[in-house]
Structure formats: structure tokens, C-alpha cells
Amino acid sequence: MDSLLHHNLSETQWVSLITLLVIGLPVSAYILRTCLSLFNEEMPSYRRAMFIVPVVALGTYLAFDVLSYLVLLAIRDSRVIQRTPYGHPSFGFQQWLFTALPIKWAVVSFIPLIRYTLVFIVIAIAGILQVFFLTIPFRKALFIFVAQWSATSLPTSSSAVRYISSQELWGIPLVCILICKLFMTSTNQ
Fold first, then answer.
1. Residue 80 sits in which domain range?
2. What is the structure's pLDDT at 161?
């Protein structure tokens, strides 16, 4: 069972992590500041934005991990889960933290509609964290989180980059942000 739960990072994973921290964090902080300016909210300093981005990301990731682990505990007695290392009684939350995200998604998908419920709860937690750090209304915080996430993650995923570069659809994240902005201005009037 130890070989299945081995969580040392390979050289490629270390390079990806360092690249994410060196390039992704400043870009995400800039996108957060841009999203806030589009919603006519006070922008935090660049240094504070570089603090807010990983804290909100870590908080949402841990929220998903805790909630998905609770789902695993709820279905641990099923025969399908018992045949895997995840049904073993010694499998704990520490091992769950290092389990790959697609496996967590598959476990959560074992119960119908739970995965979508978890996604909504995690997005709500991200909005609460944004409210706490940015002192903005919850509705705006949700829209800013979704706009920031779409503007950050869509161009950086490798399959999306290949698709977008072949289709010349670089405006999708901008369109998402503008739609959120239009919705916010129409509801404020």
C-alpha cells in the first residue's frame, strides 16, 4: 500500500511547482488586481494580492479535500471502495491530501450529485475568503473569484493553450470577466 501512496515529487513536478510560484503567482496577483478594477473595487497592493491569491487557493483546496474526505468516510463501507487502498482502515486524511485530484473526483462521483454540491460549497467558501481578505460584498467576491479563476486557469492549461492557439480564442477569459461585470452593473441599478 505504501507504493500507491508514495508522495515524493519527481523532478518534473518540482519544476512545475517552481514555475507556478515564479510565474503563476505574480500573474494571478495581477489578474486579481485587474478583476477588482473591472468591478470598481479598491485594489490591494501588489504584495497583498500576492498573499491573497495563494491563501484563497489553499483554503479552497483544503475545503475540497476535507469535504471529499468526508464523502470517502461516508462510503468507505461499500464493496467497491473496500477493494481499493482508500477503503483500508489505516488510510487517513494525510494520505488523502496527497491523492491525485482525478481520483478524489472519482470517489466523490460515487454518490450522484455530490460532486456538484461540493463544487458549489467550495466556490462559496472561496467567496467567503475573498470577502474576508478584500472586504467586498459576497456576490462581487463570487464573480471576482470566477472571473479570476477563468482568466488564470483557461490560458494556462496545456490542452486549453493548444485549443485556443489553434482557434484563436484568446478573448474567452476577457469575455467571462466582461459578462460578470455587466451582470453586476445591471443588478446594482
1. 11-188
2. 44
